[in-house]
Amino acid sequence: MSAAAQPTLALETLRRAKLIVLAGSGGVGKTTSSAALALQAALLGRRVLVLTIDPAQRLLQALGLQGEDPANKPVANVPHEVLPRLQHLVPGGQPGGSLHAMMLDAGLGAIAMVERLLPDAQLRDRVLNNRIYKAFLPTLQASPDYMALELLFELSLDPRFDLVVLDTPPMHNALDFLKAGHTLASFINERVLKWFAKVPLPGKKASGLSSLFGSGSSMAMSVLGRMFGADALPDIAEFFSSFQEVLPKLKDRALATDAMLREPSTQFLVVTAPGETSLREARHLFLQLQQHGIQPGGFIVNRMLQVPVELGDRPGQASLTERLLQSGMDAKRAAALAESLHQAAERLLHLGRSDLEHLRQLQRMVGPKGFCAPVPQREGDVHSLVQLRKLGQIVVDGAAPGLAT
Amino acid sequence: MLGTMTQPLPTAQPPAAPLTARMPAPALLREMLSKELLLVTGKGGVGKSTVAQVLARRAASQGKKVLLLELEAVSRAGPLFRAAAVGPQPKEVAPGLWLAALETMDSLRYFAVQQLKIETLVNLALRNRAVEGFFQAVPAVKPMLFLYHVWRLLEEHGPRGDRRWDLLICDMPTSGFVQGMYQIPLTLQQTFRAGPVHGYGKAMGDLLLDAQRTGLVLVTLPEEMPVVETLELGAALRKNHGVQPVAVVVNGVFPSALDAGELAELATAVQKPTPDAAAVEDALALERLIGAEPVADLMDLGAHLWAAELLLGRRQRAQGLLPKLGDAVRGRILELPFLFRRELPLAAIDQLAANLDGGQP
Question: Long-range contacts of range B172-175, CB-CB < 8 Å, 24 or more positions apart?
Fold first, then answer.
């Protein structure tokens, strides 16, 4: 292993990056990997915040954010200090670093965002009491992209942290996430805003509405009216007019966040797992990021079935049967047991080989300038910081530069 | 030794003894397939697509007209049936089985066509930047349009007035999406107090909450985190929307190649005349040291013991987890065996479909 001899690319990332974004489709272990990397960085002396979306209860417990009672959830959108529980992991010294963890609640985040952006109390209440806004708040969890980016912006200004590790929502499509800011920004262009300026303020509904239909740019409103019914138009109009103050600010922030994602101090890592589908999705994400002008730093490949190196390729069923017979097992039973066990062993070895082949494909994709970190399938969950630290160590130690093609 | 492509599927083994007291599989399966709409969801990577495909194949094999719906730009099930270019238009890929892959813009178009009727107006509307912006900027538009699409698809009828689909199976994205979707009907009714959308909201709510018509299928793996999250999702849906899943499907249950007693027996058997696994390693280290050829049969037994311990370990962990899950869903659990593959070809999907209830289709 060259890990000890020279700092690996993974280690460099943890030492230097200001923002690490972990991307990947659902279920590949992004959240756990984020927490493990954040802990590693903190142990290296960084002041780290890990922002997680929908973390598992066990992970919260491991981070010391949640007790045994699942109903007693930690407060969302607030950084919680994990560090006091870290110290016993660093024998013989205080870590210079610190670790905070924060859970994202998109609905609460949206309320807090409006409160931050609108200092004027009257205006603020108008937005927060808008019926469309209120009704859609609970559904925000289906699209946490905006809020993750929005919070990211806030956190980048927080002097307590010099590294943010961002666990992203599950994505098949990197563009959904990357474009969250852009979508908003392009929607809020001048032309559209000008159009919204024609949307009447409450109290002037009747005349405003008729002028809308009369104006040249009212086609959209008329179409919306046909889709949703004319009755809904005042609600829609109110929704947008109450947002007129917020939208330009949102646009500025969206653009700022977008710029942040492209800075050289930002590293994207793609988290994946062996298997054709995962591989395809990881490749897709990787290419999309590249097309977006972002070069991902590497892959973390979770759930590798690890076959002990000393095991042979060709287990012999005959010798197993023979051994069982020697021990005095009756012939029929020995044969049946040997048959089923042999089949299982062969398939598991095969699976292990195919996982390795998938790893090689990812190594070739990332090339020698990036890294690939295979992580063996864990038996059971991460329950403690000690386990989380081990996991992070496995990622850092196992990370090796990719292969030249 | 068999090559990668030709590896056979495990031969049918007698079904393992169920891990927890549960509703008989045939009755549960019959109930599931009697619905009009099955929403298949769960944490990422647990095999939602596999389960949706298995259910679709099984239902189609019973003569039903089944539409398998994916929320993807590129269909996952398409390659399985060697069907190229599966898009928003349902495509018959096998007898009785149609496939469609929907993106949000497809559902938006479907919605616009139904509302505006006139093609020119639809094109005009969807090309309008403000309208497009409205749909992209308003949160939860995705689950809303998808739910609308599903609801309308179920209302489709053939030329002779017969229902176009007997069963619509949705391979859903993450559980967050599903929770958002259950919220939609109420949201729409609150947002639009009258008018067509209010009516849609009500109709969609009636469909989602009608246990006769709609079944929620939660998919999980026999591992701690997915099981805990399934329990949490189930509890949240019950609390917030009064929904109970029709079934939980536990995917990838390791076969009981042998039980704990047998493993002990095997270990003893191997230990008596020959070294145990640790000794195998020692022996191999020695072999390497003296540069001799590896002892083939020691290696063989090493692999067998490794496999046995792995299988038994996973099965024992599953045994610790599944009873709790079974209690939470009143025994409504179906198991799919692990087939030692990361990806399943159609033959494997069909094998799982045929053995869903432990019997023949």
Answer: B172/B39, B172/B40, B172/B41, B172/B48, B172/B71, B173/A26, B173/A170, B173/B41, B173/B71, B174/A26, B174/A169, B174/A170, B174/B41, B174/B43, B174/B44, B175/B41, B175/B42, B175/B43, B175/B229, B175/B233
